[in-house]
Write a structure and sequence with these properties.
Radius of gyration: 39 Å
Strand content: 35-45%
Number of helices: 6
Largest sheet: 7 strands, antiparallel
Distance between the termini: 23 Å
Helix content: 10-25%
Shape: elongated
Structural class: alpha+beta
Length: 532
């Protein structure tokens, strides 16, 4: 198998190209799209296929085709991946692909106006002119537009010439991980590059609530709870003072209904007597038989008895409404409002539930700022106390969150060592843009410990542990990978220095590396012959 590997710099974009002839045993089989030129002639083995893999910052092209021979139809199987999301490579789902082959002044084109299958375009070409050629592949889709220049190629005058030019060559230890597998998972690659990084110290941490930015709302009384409409939902934002629910008080003593009715009757009688006394005193005051002060006292008594009567009626009505469960809370209901603005993160009650004094109802957290809380060992105290730069990552995200004077601060480095662990807490406060950080998330908190150094780096997510070895998987072509043992150095801001095992410009698997490892365990040689 002949193989050519080149690195082409276009502006700041590195383009990797691998083109060669694959042996018969490793040639792809694409089901209904089988290459027309891959059949044998007179008992001779099939012609080995050629392939190219090229990357830009926006897309990846992995293309296979039979050697170009005058008068023979060639199908180009172009697998095209959208690299816009650095965390997940996705198949291009629409658009047009044009392959242009130029021999001297002669230009021949092959066009696929749509993908034959997701991510796979199959333009066909029948060359009519032999000679050295150049090849260009153009993609025009809604998601991405890109052009790829393939290394110099050859159009052979006949099959005999094509066979004479072919060379057999195997890649020992190659691992097959097909495009269909890559597109079906969270898969991505990154280029090993030289970059200035800062030595750091990293500790485990968690994301916590800033004191004063959390409110736990509890019930003030026993009663039946009614949620306000629209009913608040978990994760929704609430304003300070927003009404969330009402609690209609209820009584829990046996025989309370009879007691309440008796209290109403007594209040009615007392109020009636007060009004009669006032009328009698009015006549006596008019005849100057009693002082006017007595009439004023009688008027006050009417107001007091009226208030008692109103309270008794309200309590009886509340009891009846609570007992039937058919009425919304009205007069006398306790309002449940939010003491702070924030996000509703917990709701412990449902509509119509009976509450008791102190029972939890809602939890509201202001997520605009959070704490990053870690624990540091005694020897590392000076590193954190004197640090002027800190950052952290959280599980499940590739983002590096910076902590600096504009968005956060060091809250404290503890003054009391834990006797068992010999650690103290270290707490940073930081803004939480777009609420990306969740309370309780695990984090890796780092602080700078030295001056920047120039290093060859790869994403930390690309590193796997295999026994006592650190390894990465290098993408040698579109569907072929190699396991590399690496020696690591400084770690910083989601990157790790590679001292040995990877060269600058090589692409390593940064997401989905464990899936490639499983594929390697299943069998190292490329499992070609998959069907498209």
């Amino acid at each position: 198998m002949k193989s050519v590997i080149a690195w082409l710099a276009t502006g700041s974009v590195l383009v990797s190209l691998a083109i060669g002839c694959k042996s018969t045993g490793n040639g792809h089989s694409h089901g209904a799209h089988e290459h027309s030129g891959g059949h044998s002639h007179g008992g001779e083995p099939e012609l080995a296929k050629e392939s190219a893999t090229l990357w830009t910052d926006k897309a990846e092209l992995f293309m296979e085709w039979d050697p170009l021979i005058v008068g023979r139809e060639t199908r180009f199987l172009a697998h095209i991946t959208n690299l816009a999301d650095p965390a997940k490579a996705v198949a291009v789902a629409d658009g047009k692909v044009v392959v242009t082959v130029s021999v001297a002044s002669k230009t021949m084109t092959a066009t696929a106006s749509e993908p034959a299958r997701l991510g796979i375009f199959i333009p066909t070409l029948t060359p009519d002119t032999a000679g050295s050629c150049t090849m260009k592949v153009s993609l025009d889709s809604g998601a991405v537009r890109e052009s790829f220049v393939v290394a110099p190629c050859t159009v052979y005058p006949d099959e005999t010439s094509a066979r004479a030019a072919a060379k057999e060559e195997e890649t020992p230890g190659a691992i097959a991980f097909l495009k269909e597998q890559q597109w079906s998972i969270e898969f991505a690659t990154a280029t090993a590059r030289n970059e200035s990084i800062v030595p750091s110290k990293t500790v485990n941490a968690t994301i916590g609530v800033v004191p004063g930015r959390e409110a736990r709302v509890t019930a003030a009384t026993m009663g039946r709870l009614s949620l306000e409409s629209p009913i608040p939902t978990l994760g929704s934002d609430v304003a300070k003072g927003q009404l969330l629910a009402r609690i209609q008080p209820i009584l829990n003593a046996a025989g309370s209904l009879g007691t309440l009715r008796a209290e109403v009757a007594a209040a009615v009688a007392e109020h009636t007597a007060a009004k009669a006394a006032f009328a009698r005193l009015e006549r006596l005051v008019a005849s100057d038989s009693v002082p006017k002060r007595r009439l004023e006292e009688a008027a006050s008594a009417i107001e007091v008895t009226q208030a008692k009567l109103d309270a008794a009626n309200t309590t009886l009505a509340s009891y009846n409404a609570s007992a039937s469960g058919s009425s919304k809370p009205g007069a006398g209901a306790f309002k449940v409002s939010t003491p702070i603005a924030g996000t509703l993160v917990e709701q412990s009650v449902t509509e119509g539930e009976t509450t008791s004094p102190g029972s939890p109802l809602f939890t509201i957290v202001d997520l605009d700022r959070v704490w990053v809380e870690g624990r540091i060992f005694e020897p590392d105290l000076p590193l954190f106390e004197n640090s002027k730069s800190a950052w952290f990552t959280v599980d499940g995200r590739n983002t590096v969150f910076e902590i600096n004077e504009t968005n956060g601060k060091l809250v404290t480095v503890g003054n009391v060592l834990d006797a068992a662990s010999r650690t103290v807490p270290v707490i940073f406060e930081v803004e939480n843009p777009k609420r990306a950080l969740r309370i309780g998330q695990f984090a890796k908190l780092s602080v700078a410990t030295g001056e920047p150094v120039d290093a060859l780096v790869v994403p930390e997510a690309a590193i796997l542990q295999d026994g006592n070895q650190s390894i990465v998987f290098v993408q040698s072509s579109g569907e072929s990978f190699a396991r590399r043992v690496v020696t690591l150095g400084t770690r910083s801001r989601g990157l790790v220095q590679v001292l040995q095992g990877v060269e600058a410009g090589e692409r390593v698997v940064s997401s989905g590396a464990y899936d490639v490892k499983l594929a390697a365990s299943a069998g190292g040689a490329p499992a070609h012959g998959h069907s498209h």
